[in-house]
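Subject: design request, 563 residues
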């Protein structure tokens, strides 16, 4: 049985990514598009469009064009989308890289992607230069100075205002240090200031972009269940997903959106940055997640839409600090990137007085496939929503390969215009995941109910096999999180001579609380079938998670097997 959106299909415009995202630049010219949540520096929609063109012109003068790859190696900043859009405007591809990567990991992605230029944050520029030496990268550009002379707006309590002391020298005089031209100016580190590209007159050559075939984004899959792979996303993939999400009313031109999730991740790139700009919202960027700073920014910037991951939602549900802030402007809190326990979703909605929604997808789906209605009356607790327009899903029996009906769990397959073109340099992996009929075999285990609402149970590769029974770690983690003493939890398979594998829980307790392993195992046992019971439990200080909020079970499993 195939599940489809309750909404009619929509027409996907035949337009490339950058013009679509910049479509509000004239109508909302003087509206703030991007705000640095730490120092208050901001860009209007008019400035965004102008800077993108000037960056594109500067890149073009250095020979960058259609088919070339630019790498972005940076924490969140308001220049991040400007660089991405400039490369896209020229028909280039941007590969986004986790700024915490080691030099070896950075070089590996640069080489696999065949990156020509690398744009790095100041904090990681030395790593970037080392990566350049081990790759085909021709030049490293460093972020740092604002790209306009617009004064910073009043900063929040999170940091001081202003960071534009050198802007007039760069833009007004067009000269660098010691009389060098801006194009030639280069710090001692060997990296070129990104602002040097703005010396161009802004004339951008027209790129003949094939929206269905040309790759605009090359994020790499998380690698939590295997080696990371370059996901080829075309202009059509991303524009289609933006159009699909727009029908939900999730983000409008009246909204202020928080940008704290990493922009190098597809969630931050498409759902926050691209959707926010394409729909005329104001995006407030934070370089990293600090809970107090996050709450202060939500309050002071009057944030209305919060895009979050389960760890942030868990903190909003359980941390007393939340009560010290006025979050009344928040109308929607969305969680995605990993399963969110129903109990946490319910608690956050009640505590903040906002609508809590979930979405589901993968890097390979640009990322959205399903989305919860923003109408609270249509909400289903624990659900990741229904298929978005132009998308369809079906659930496949893991053992037999048969299609399943409502309320039967299996592997979810997805199909739609947002599905990736394939994996870079890895056609075998692409063929194993994307079949000849266009169905993406997602590896996620879930089901849909009688009304087409989807529920994610777990990852196929992470199911625990207890005496032949399949046990989903996420279900047990959700139950543990309802215990008053539990701050966080992860469940992993533990080898057992008799059962094959048994569920083992690793639990972080709230400060000032106590609980025994036997107490917590009994608590779970009261709520599940016998084969799902937790058989072993260990207390830990913190559950390791990826920046997007996924529990790093592989790390925990490796640690377990090494002991």
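Subject: RE: design request

Done. Sequence follows.
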């Amino acid at each position: 049985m195939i599940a489809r959106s309750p909404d009619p299909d929509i027409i996907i415009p035949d337009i490339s990514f950058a013009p679509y995202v910049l479509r509000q630049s004239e109508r909302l010219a003087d509206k703030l598009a991007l705000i640095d949540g730490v120092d208050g520096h901001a860009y209007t929609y008019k400035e965004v469009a102008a800077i993108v063109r000037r960056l594109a012109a500067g890149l073009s003068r250095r020979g960058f064009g259609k088919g070339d790859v630019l790498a972005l190696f940076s924490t969140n900043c308001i220049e991040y989308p400007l660089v991405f859009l400039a490369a896209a405007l020229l028909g280039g591809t941007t590969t986004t890289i986790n700024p915490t990567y080691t030099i070896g990991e950075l070089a590996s992605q640069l080489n696999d992607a065949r990156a020509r230029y690398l744009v790095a944050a100041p904090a990681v520029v030395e790593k970037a230069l080392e990566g350049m030496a081990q790759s085909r990268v021709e030049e490293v550009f460093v972020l740092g100075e604002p790209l306009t002379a617009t004064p910073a707006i009043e900063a929040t309590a999170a940091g001081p205002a202003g960071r534009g002391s050198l802007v007039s020298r760069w833009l007004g005089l067009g000269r660098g240090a010691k009389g060098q031209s801006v194009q030639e100016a280069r710090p001692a580190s060997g990296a070129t200031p990104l602002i040097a590209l703005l010396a161009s007159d802004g004339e951008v050559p027209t790129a003949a972009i094939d929206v269905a075939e040309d790759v605009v984004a090359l994020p790499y899959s998380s690698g939590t269940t295997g080696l990371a792979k370059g996901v080829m996303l075309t202009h059509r993939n991303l524009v289609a997903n933006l159009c699909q999400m727009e029908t939900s009313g999730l983000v409008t031109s009246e909204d202020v959106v928080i940008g704290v999730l990493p922009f190098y991740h597809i969630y931050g790139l498409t759902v926050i940055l691209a959707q926010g700009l394409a729909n005329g919202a104001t995006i407030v960027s934070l370089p990293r997640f600090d809970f107090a700073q996050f709450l202060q920014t939500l309050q002071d910037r009057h944030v209305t839409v919060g895009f979050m991951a389960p760890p942030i939602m868990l903190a909003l549900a359980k941390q007393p600090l939340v009560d010290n802030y006025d979050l009344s402007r928040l109308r929607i809190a969305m969680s995605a990137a990993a399963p969110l326990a129903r109990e946490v979703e319910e608690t956050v909605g009640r505590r903040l007085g906002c609508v809590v929604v979930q979405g589901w997808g993968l890097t390979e789906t640009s990322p959205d496939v399903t989305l919860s209605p923003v109408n609270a009356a249509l909400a289903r607790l624990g659900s990741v929503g229904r298929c978005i327009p132009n998308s369809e899903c079906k659930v496949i029996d893991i053992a037999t390969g048969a299609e399943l009906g409502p309320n039967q769990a299996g592997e979810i397959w997805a199909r739609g215009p947002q599905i990736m073109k394939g994996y870079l340099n890895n056609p075998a992996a692409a063929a194993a995941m994307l079949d000849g009929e266009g169905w993406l075999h997602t590896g996620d285990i879930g089901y849909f109910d009688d009304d087409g609402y989807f529920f994610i149970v777990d990852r196929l590769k992470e199911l625990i096999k207890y005496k032949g029974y399949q046990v989903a770690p996420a279900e047990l983690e959700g139950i543990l999180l309802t215990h008053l003493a539990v701050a966080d939890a992860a469940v992993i398979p533990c080898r057992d001579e008799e059962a094959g594998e048994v569920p083992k829980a690793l639990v972080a307790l709230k400060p000032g609380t106590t609980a025994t392993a036997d107490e917590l195992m009994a608590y779970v046992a009261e709520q599940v079938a016998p084969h799902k019971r937790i058989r072993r439990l260990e207390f830990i200080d913190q559950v390791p998670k990826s920046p997007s909020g996924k529990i790093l079970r592989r790390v925990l499993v490796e640690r377990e097997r090494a002991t």
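Confidence is low (pLDDT under 50) at residues 156-188.
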